[in-house]
Amino acid sequence: MQEYLTSTIIIDWQQPNVLQLARQLATSNTNTTAKSCFEWVRDNIYHSSDYKMNPLTCKASEVLKYKTGYCYAKSHLLAALLRANSIPTGFCYQRLSVFDDGTPYSLHGFNAVYLPEYSWYRLDARGNKIGVNAQFTPPQEQLAFGINFPEEIDCHHIFAEPLPEVVKALQSHTTWNGMLHNLPDVERNYLAAFEATATKLESA
After folding, report:
1. Dihedral of CA 160/47/36/119: which sign?
2. What is the mean pLDDT of residues 42-61?
3. Which residues sit opposite 140 in a β-bridge?
4. Mean pLDDT of 189-197
5. Distances in whole angstroms, Cα of residue 134 to Cα of each of 39, 146, 161
6. What would the mean pLDDT of 36-59 be, rounded to a whole number?
7. Which residues fall within 8 angstroms of residue 173, CB to CB, at 6 or more apart?
8. pLDDT of residue 163
9. Residue 136 in contact with residue 122, Cβ under 8 Å?
């Protein structure tokens, strides 16, 4: 589990402001701490394209500082807050239709957290809006999006670090609009190749 607790350049949970918030959100129970962190990021960090907010953020500390981020960046902050509270946290991805009508497609990022009572549990803090209602209801998942097209995929693999394609995209643009027209994507088969390890991680 150690790799799911690590502080990195992107998941910089040892940064003072991140650590301070993590302590404020902590409770005496793992499940309630996870819920507290999830709901705080979901509701207090504004999705970049939903709210047309700049600057474009990537590192957890940047997301907290500017209170905005794409789904990927929000997942970076949530991972940082949970890891700071000694709760193993990883990254999950779906490949979805950008406009829910087929091409083009892009990655959507969210998290998986290890809850001793339930094992790995996926949760999506991208931010709710009309048609999106992600909740913390273990053991039942309630993610932001489902799968509707053959080229979409819900990858159950739990990555210890954000995908390089996601980090590169976030660091290559400076505005929400620039990112919106260059959302990261990978071939469906790329994510499907990780599915063989998903069961092993979920039962770890």
Report:
1. negative
2. 98
3. 137
4. 86
5. 10, 11, 22
6. 98
7. 56, 179, 182
8. 97
9. no
3-state SS of the chain is CHHHCCCCCCCCCCCHHHHHHHHHHCCCCHHHHHHHHHHHHHHHCEEHHHHCCCCCCCCHHHHHHHCEECHHHHHHHHHHHHHHCCCCEEEEEEEEECCCCCCCEEEEEEEEEEECCCEEEEECCCCCECCECCEEECCEEECCCCCCCCCCEEEEEEECCCCHHHHHHHHHCCCHHHHHCCCCCCCHHHHHCCHHHHHHHHCC
Written as one letter, the residue type at 32 is: T
**């995929």: which residue's tokens?**
153
User: What are the Cα distances from residue 9, in Å, to 64, 129, 144, 161, 162?
Assistant: 15, 31, 27, 11, 11
Side chain identity, residue 112: A
Is 2 buried (19+), middle (13-18) or exposed (0-12) by CB count in 10 A?
exposed
pLDDT tens per residue, range 138-182: 999 999 999 999 999 999 999 999 999 999 999 999 999 999 999
Cβ–Cβ under 8 Å, residues 63 and 74? yes
The model carries a pTM of 0.96
Residue type, position 149, single letter: F
